[in-house]
Amino acid sequence: MIVLAANLAANAHDWLIKHPTEAAKYQGQWVAVSGTGITLNAGSLGELLKKPDAKKYLVTKIPTLKELIDIL
User: Fold this and answer.
1) Alpha carbon separation from 20 to 17, 26, 40, 52, 66 (Å, rounded)
2) How far apart are CA 27 and CA 60, in angstroms?
3) How far is CA 10 from CA 67, 69, 71, in A?
4) Is-contact 59 70, C-beta < 8 A?
5) Residue 26 CA: distances (Å) to CA of 1, 40, 50, 64
6) Which of 41, 57, 64, 70 lies 20 to 30 angstroms, CA to CA, from 19?
7) DSSP characters for 42-67?
8) pLDDT (tens digit, 9 = 90+) per residue, 25-67?
9) DSSP, res 29
10) Are 57 and 12 in contact (CB under 8 A)?
């Protein structure tokens, strides 16, 4: 079970790396990502987790450019 979850998360992470232009459309939003793309999105983590099936995917926030600059 843990190996399956790790594999699903790795596939979702790979998708984000390989598709930065599509991921950029969701800047500032919380998203649920699978190995085939972003399946759900919301403005807040709480809102996203209320959606059915959200917990089946890698849940993360796509940062805005300002958030990235502030971190760096």
Assistant:
1) 6, 10, 17, 26, 16
2) 11
3) 24, 26, 24
4) no
5) 30, 10, 18, 9
6) 70
7) ESSHHHHHTSTTGGGSEEEE---HHH
8) 999 999 999 999 999 999 999 999 999 999 899 999 999 989 9
9) S
10) yes
Is residue 12 classed as helix, strand or coil in its secondary structure? helix
- Tokens found for residue 2: 């843990």
Q: How far is CA 39 from the centre of its chain?
A: 9
Rounded distance, CA 46 to CA 7, Å?
Answer: 25
> How much is the pTM?
0.83
Kindly list the domain boundaries of the chain, sorted by start residue.
Answer: 2-71
User: What is the C-alpha separation between 47 and 40, in angstroms, rounded?
Assistant: 11
Report the Cα 43 to chain-centroid distance in Å: 12
